[in-house]
Amino acid sequence: MEKYARQHLSEGQKNPDEINVNMEAEIIRALNLHYNRNNHLEIPEHFRYVVEQTLKEFFKAIQEQKDSEQSWKKAIYKVIARLDEQVPEYFKSPTFLEQLE
Fold first, then answer.
1. d(Cα 70, Cα 12) in Å, to the nearest integer?
2. Which single residue of 2, 21, 36, 84 could bond 52 by disulfide (Cβ 3.0 to 4.6 Å)?
3. How many CB atoms lie within 10 A of CB 59?
């Protein structure tokens, strides 16, 4: 996230509201590759919204030079936590991993 926020800033972007993430965005692809390597799970639409909001929060923090503070990411994590949704029941199943194969 931090890398992508810094990239937006280095490209001269000034307004975090101009950051838009779609399902084909590089950041979505990178996160999906990291956390859903085998593409067993469909990416929910809400994920795109959370990524976009998180990217905006990182962008604003870096833009305001809060990244020089020791625990600058804590405030961002609090914002992200409010965007959490319930974990689907099928993730809680003891046979979940077997179902993916």
1. 26
2. 21
3. 25
Burial (CB count within 10 angstroms: exposed 0-12, middle 13-18, buried 19+), residue 67: middle
Residue pLDDT, tens place only, 70-101: 999 999 999 999 999 888 888 888 888 777 76
- The tokens for 99 are 């179902």
* Cβ atoms within 10 Å of 21's Cβ, excluding its own: 20
Alpha helices for 1-101 (secondary structure H): 2-10, 26-35, 45-63, 73-81, 89-92, 96-100
Residue 80 contacts residue 50 (beta carbons within 8 Å): yes
Could you report the per-residue pLDDT of 31-40, keeping only the tens digit for each? 999 998 888 8
For residue 71, the one-letter residue type is S
| Residue 18 one-letter amino acid | E
In the chain, the largest separation of any two C-alpha atoms, in whole Å, equals 48
